[in-house]
Amino acid sequence: MKEPIDRIVRFVTGRRTAWISVLLGVLLGAGVIVGLGEADRGATPTDTLPVGYESTEAVALQQQLPTEETAAAVILFTTDGSISGQLGELEQVVAGLDTGVEGPPAFVQPAEDDTAALSVVNVPAETATDVGESVSELRSNLLEAAPDGVTAQVTGPAGIRADLTEVFAGANTTLLAFTASVVAILLLVTYRSPFLWLIPLSVVGLADRTAALLATQVLAGFGVSWDESTIGILSVLVFGAGTNYALLLISRYRDELRTRESRHEAMAHAVKRAAEAILASAATVVVGVLTLLLSVFPTTRGLGLASAVGIVVAAAFVLLVLPAALVLFGRWIFWPRDPHVGEEGQAGRRSAWRRIGDQVAARPGTFIAGTLALLAAMAFGLTQIQLGLSASEQFLDQPEAISAAERLAESFPAGTADPTVVVTATEDEPAVEQLVTDLEGLDAVGSVMVSAQGGGVTQLNAVLSVEPESDQARQAVEEIRTVASQTSQTYVSGPEAQSIDESDASARDRLVILPLILGLVLVALMGILRSVLAPVILVASVIASFAAALGVSWWLFTSILGFSGLDPSVPLLSFLFLVALGVDYNIFLITRTLEEARESGTREGVLRALSATGGVITSAGILLAAVFAVLGVLPLVVLAQVGAVICIGVLLDTLLVRTILVPAIVLTLGERFWWPRKVAPADR
User: Fold this and answer.
1) Are 492 and 480 within 8 A, CB to CB?
2) What range(s) does the SSD domain occupy (predicted)?
3) Fewer Cβ atoms within 10 Å of its own Cβ: the N or the C terminal residue of the chain?
4) How many angstroms separate the CA atoms of 72 and 80, rounded?
């Protein structure tokens, strides 16, 4: 095995072959980008809904209705005066609307408080683009046709779907631009060289585009769903992890240039030394993200598979293309801080990181106790945490559909804009009439009507009279489901029902996936380090970082930013990426500690490793934290929350856990840290 690896390293770093490796990487990336392109997503209405849950079954049954693919747009008319005197004009406005969907004339219903009126029209909904274009045209026509003093807004399922599509329009391009800019700035600051930063940025950028397009092809090939945010998150992951790997490799290369005249030999040695940590890190992340394939949410499975593809591509480009690209240039690429033969390496220098290590070495027990106390205090917010966001809190900037729905609820029954949907696999009139009667008998149901029928399926819309997203609304859905269960093959969906099912499904995912992530990462570390105790300590330290980050984030989003809670998917996604990526920094530190311990013993080895890796790991951690913080430029609050938790957790891992806690534990345990492995004299 060693000989093939040596051949690959010689090819990548050789004087006559390095340029071939760069050319192959560029051709591979260009071939994927130009030749394959992005696969067709083929989105379905159930992609974001949990498999096997009642609301999902209802949506799937709806697809059997023979009606053309449409979505209901609720038009809300409001005025500061009396709306009843303008009903005739409003009816003419609605009658003049051409939505492209045939159906009975739309009605205009005034509110009891005489300040608002509503109408419901259907718009084409075969694709998200159709909905967006139809709603945009509808809003434009209403703006021109609405009487003086009357404001017209569009909400309902079509309005919300159109606004969601609109806020994501161009979002991935924006995210990519922000991510690349942040990485470029931080690389420039890290290297303080006008040239060096361009090489890793170019390689990682090529890896990102290759991974994004290759991932969609893999997802399509395996029939796995993905959504608008998948590629955006993937770009953040590839840029973050890929740049981290690049920082580690270049740091090792700089050290080797201080001991070897030939940059090709220096790079070959650097690749061999850095590859162990990079491959270990990549394997840990891949194992972690693949656990998402067990999620009941199809798009979450897609994110897991896409992330695995992205990490593999990032590691491959950093280990096979970046070394070749760097050795094509001389030492001057590091200007104005060119490394010279004979200079002392990072491990032996009296750096700031070594001075911190010496302080920790003087009182390791005190530092352990103090660090754990601080992390526990930060994690206190977990005792108050609540999961779940209202519809109005889903977007960073509230779109028209949400604000209109809130205004509509002031004048009409709360569930008018987006009713609870009951779908039954029958057209039998007596059975349908009985179901309607039973539903109307519930106190929380204001009205029930047959909204679609055909193909052996009937759809009922039940308007709730209670406050949306309240305990009463959830209780109403449970009562509706109890009534619906008395009719065979009858399912309940709609916003309240879907919210209940998504919350239950998220809890199920956390229960199944979180322990599995820990177990797999732990086993992977045991294989990498050939130790039991060290992996347990490293994983426990990352869990402590996660708990502290989630506790602080809860306080940040609720007490400062005013949100009611965290999205149910935040704990799972942030835990996954924090454990998988946070362990990276411990891997970088501990693999270097093991290397140094073979010469100097474990206690001195961890101090030398801290000195050698302190700068690069800190730079990598700050960069990764900043990259995930960029998720805040996407329009969904859930992504901003995930980015915030990961950002805080990575900073804690980098600046506190890796710098103080782990070295203090290693210094306290000494050789016992590697139990049952021994760093024997034969290893030294």
Assistant:
1) yes
2) 210-328, 539-667
3) N
4) 26
Q: Which two tokens stand for residue 366?
A: 């005190």
Helical axes 156-168 vs 400-411, angle rounded to 10°:
160
User: Which phi and psi angles does 123 have, rounded to 5°?
Assistant: -125, 155
pLDDT tens across 170-229, in order? 666 777 787 788 888 878 887 788 888 888 889 999 999 999 899 999 998 898 888 878
Residue pair 278/248 in contact (Cβ under 8 Å)? The answer is yes
| Nearest-angstrom CA–CA distance, 55 and 61 | 10
Dmax (CA) of the chain: 95
Could you give the CA distance from residue 135 to residue 161 in angstroms, rounded to a whole number?
A: 9
Please give the Cα distance from 157 to 162 (Å, whole number): 9
Helix, strand, coil percentages for the chain (3-state, nearest 5): 70, 10, 25
pLDDT in tens, 259-305: 888 888 888 888 888 888 888 888 888 988 999 999 999 999 999 99
Q: Left, alpha or beta for 108 (phi > 0: left; psi -120 to 50: alpha)?
A: beta
Q: How far apart are CA 417 and CA 76, in angstroms?
A: 9
CB 250 within 8 A of CB 323: no
Q: What digits encode the pLDDT tens for the residues 11-22?
A: 888 888 888 888
**Alpha carbon distance 644, 542 (integer Å):** 16
- Which amino acid, 568? P
- pLDDT higher than threshold 90 for residue 38: no
Q: What is the dihedral of CA 597, 599, 601, 605, to 10 degrees?
A: -50
Query: Residues 563, 567, 573, 578: is their CA dihedral positive or negative?
Result: positive
Sheet strand arrangement including 420-424: 445-454, 457-464, 420-424, 490-493
At CA 204, angle to CA 198 and CA 206, rounded to 5? 100
**Structure tokens, 678:** 């021994």
Please return the burial class of 510, using the count of CB atoms within 10 Å of its CB with bins 0-12, 13-18 and 19+: middle
* DSSP collapsed to 3 states, 338-378: CCCCCCCCCCCCCCHHHHHHHHHHHCHHHHHHHHHHHHHHH
Instruction: Look at the block and give the residue holding tokens 């005489």.
Output: 114
- Structural domains in the chain, CATH included, are 1-37+170-345 (1.20.1640.10), 68-167 (3.30.70), 349-397+504-684 (1.20.1640.10), 416-500 (3.30.70.1430)
Q: Look at residues 150, 546, 42, 589 and name the one whose alpha carbon lies nearest to residue 356.
A: 589
Size of the chain, expressed as the number of residues it contains: 684
* Distance, CA of 40 to CA of 38 (rounded, Å): 7
